[in-house]
Amino acid sequence: MFKSTLSSILKSTAQYYYKESAKKISEDVFNFFKENPNPNDDQVHSFAEKKGYDVHDLEAEIYKLATRFVSFMSNGLSIKKGISKKEVDPIQLKKGIKVELEHTQDNNLDIAEKVALDHLAEIPNYYDLLEEMEKGAEH
């Protein structure tokens, strides 16, 4: 009984530290790319060395983040419904991009457009409705 309880505690502790370590490396990679857009391989390796990360672990985390981004950009309601910017009201899309740019890092037009298209795929006049709601909230 004691042995299995100890084993369970050790396993839980190891899992916790692994998650925390993975979160830390993910945060570090995110900040590195934020500060160093389009780094070359030498810069990535130098960063890994400076932080004390195994280069392969760091590269694996970079691939995970890239995969998440690709997944985000290639999924969503607009994709599922087959709606592109040609099928939505251009005024709504323009409003949407402007609104969504407020929430993106470095004014990323691709992400802002993707999010706007997803909203418009669900509600074609989403940004008019959002504007009305925000005006109503000001009173």
Label this structure with key terms.
mainly alpha, 139 residues, elongated, 7 helices
Strand percentage:
under 5%
Average predicted confidence as pLDDT = 86
Count of DSSP helices? 7
- What is the succession of H and E elements? HHHHHHH
Number of distinct beta strands: 0
Q: How many domains, in number, for the residues?
A: 2
Can you give the helix content as a percent range?
Answer: over 70%
The residue ranges in which pLDDT falls below 50 over 5 or more consecutive positions are: none
Distance between the termini: 64 Å
- Specify the biggest β-sheet: none
Supply Rg.
22 Å
| Structure class | mainly alpha
**What shape does the CA trace take?**
elongated
Structure write-up:
The protein has 139 residues and is mainly α. Helices cover 78% and strands 0% of the residues. The chain folds into 2 domains: 1-74, no CATH class; 82-139, no CATH class. The protein is built from 7 helices and no strands. The radius of gyration is 22 Å and the shape is elongated. The termini are far apart.
